[in-house]
């Protein structure tokens, strides 16, 4: 494994990726399930936990609050003991927040357990403004008091937290999780409307139910939570990472390869599989995973827009765009979740891709960004051969997309900043080895 050893890969592209790999637990569930442990009064066991840097960041934050964490090699097991949760020093919280957005989700659990919480500077991918206004609004509705301090935001709940009728202006994943993690121990009933219902959220609800929570997911994005007085521990196997699985599928397609992704599951990937099939990719699903391959011949362009679940998720968009450079004709991608998630295409253009960005909502329905001057639609003209280049990783998924482009390109590429990719792709260099990729460190 390369993590921490170097930040540059020299990739010799132009050969198909062929072989098997395994994806483990989803980054977007594992970090939240770890936060849920803060609510528990007994020990918790999370399995299928991947070795990614986001897990290290959240572990560091939880340890600051007195949660004892051990890991074993058995099934990626993480043992969390929250029986002695304590107040942490604000400066230390800031130092541990790192590149993740998860710290904002500690608010509800810490308010319940300690009566006080701080929100440090948040990290996460720079793919848009990413405000936390929904989070603060819902916390206030539960009874939290939010004060601006020189060191950040301080939250208290002088009268305790009470269930509320909450409506989200947009089905935000993080704000939905904020409501869940706060409402489960709040006094009374919470009714959340316009909730996000991503598979990782449903898996978090499963974790909370194991702990003793009472949560019902109703039709039309409504979630009802009856607060309880005490939550116990949990033993849970994390849902597999459908974003990582989709990323390797795109790598197989763009390199004309054949990759078996052990752990990939059909149900959470249905929107991806439909698109993969429409562009001409082949896949075969069995009980253990999904095989993705380029069946030969030409790939078809398509019009697509990203959306909240059950739509085509935004995190698949960047790897897919690289594969779309190899389809015949004009593809349109309308990014409706983040206003600035197409900037990574500039480097692809340097590698020979023909991609034009537009401010208009192209190829789909008008979205929140239509009148706001963001270049959030792309037209990709293909197929275009890609050539090696020197490129720098802009964000997590953009970084993996650059790796795909470098592997698909003729010649050599130097990819800088690969450490960012370890936020969400476990042991990716080992996986590249297993697929026969040619690259050097440095
Ligand atoms: C760690 C994690 O799980 N990250 C995922 C999570 O991010 P995250 O939870 O941050 O994403 P959200 O669903 O909250 O964000 C969606 C949109 O809502 C906006 N918004 C959000 C909160 C808020 O208070 N105000 C506001 O305006 C955001 O700027 C964005 O435009 O869901 C995204 C959408 O599926 C994924 O791309 C990320 O991989
Ligand atoms: C945007 C992402 O994650 P985060 O919310 O952690 O920045 C991602 O996983 O692509």
Automatic annotation (TrEMBL):
Residues 12-432 form the Enolpyruvate transferase domain. It catalyses: phosphoenolpyruvate + UDP-N-acetyl-alpha-D-glucosamine = UDP-N-acetyl-3-O-(1-carboxyvinyl)-alpha-D-glucosamine + phosphate. GO terms for cellular component: cytoplasm. The keyword Cell division applies. It is found in: Cytoplasm. CDD domains: UdpNAET. Phosphoenolpyruvate binds at residues 27-28. The modification 2-(S-cysteinyl)pyruvic acid O-phosphothioketal is found at residue 125. Belongs to the EPSP synthase family. MurA subfamily. This is UDP-N-acetylglucosamine 1-carboxyvinyltransferase. It comes from Pedococcus cremeus.
């Amino acid at each position: 494994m390369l993590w921490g050893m170097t930040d540059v890969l020299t990739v010799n592209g132009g050969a198909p990726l062929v072989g098997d790999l395994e994806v483990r637990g989803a980054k977007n569930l594992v970090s939240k399930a770890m936060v849920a442990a803060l609510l528990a009064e007994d020990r918790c066991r999370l399995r299928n936990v991947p070795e990614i840097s986001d897990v290290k960041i959240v572990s560091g934050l939880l340890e600051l609050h007195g949660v004892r964490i051990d890991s074993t090699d058995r099934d990626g097991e993480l043992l969390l003991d929250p029986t002695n949760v304590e107040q942490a020093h604000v400066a230390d919280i800031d130092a541990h927040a790192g590149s993740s957005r998860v710290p904002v989700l500690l608010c509800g659990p810490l308010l319940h357990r300690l009566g006080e919480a701080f929100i440090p500077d948040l990290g996460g991918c720079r793919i848009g403004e990413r405000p936390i206004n929904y989070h603060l609004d819902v916390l206030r509705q539960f009874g939290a008091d939010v004060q601006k301090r020189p060191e950040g935001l301080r939250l208290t709940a002088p009268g305790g937290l009470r269930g509320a009728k909450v409506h989200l202006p947009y089905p935000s994943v993080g704000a939905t999780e904020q409501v869940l993690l706060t409402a489960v121990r709040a006094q009374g009933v919470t009714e959340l409307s316009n909730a996000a219902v991503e598979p990782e959220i449903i898996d978090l609800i499963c974790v909370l139910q194991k702990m003793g929570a009472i949560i019902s997911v109703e039709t039309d994005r409504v979630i009802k939570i009856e607060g309880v007085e005490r939550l116990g521990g949990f033993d849970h196997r994390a849902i597999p990472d459908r974003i990582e699985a989709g990323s390797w599928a795109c790598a197989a397609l763009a390199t004309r390869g054949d990759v078996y992704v052990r752990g990939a599951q059909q149900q959470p990937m249905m929107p991806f599989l439909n698109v993969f099939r429409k562009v001409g990719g082949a896949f075969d699903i069995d009980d253990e995973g999904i095989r993705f391959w380029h069946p030969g011949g030409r790939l078809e362009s398509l019009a697509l827009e990203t959306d909240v679940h059950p739509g085509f998720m935004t995190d698949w968009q960047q790897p897919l765009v690289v594969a779309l450079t190899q389809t015949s004709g004009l593809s349109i991608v309308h990014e409706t979740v983040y206003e600035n998630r197409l900037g990574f295409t500039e480097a692809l253009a340097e590698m020979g891709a023909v991609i034009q960005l537009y401010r208009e909502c192209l190829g789909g329905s008008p979205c929140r960004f239509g009148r706001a001057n963001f270049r959030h639609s792309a037209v990709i003209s293909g197929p275009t051969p890609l050539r090696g280049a020197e490129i720098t990783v802009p964000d997590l998924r953009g970084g993996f997309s650059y790796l795909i482009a470098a592997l698909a390109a003729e010649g050599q590429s130097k990819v800088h900043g690969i450490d960012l990719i370890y936020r969400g792709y476990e042991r990716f260099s080992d996986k590249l080895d297993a697929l026969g990729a040619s690259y050097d460190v440095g």
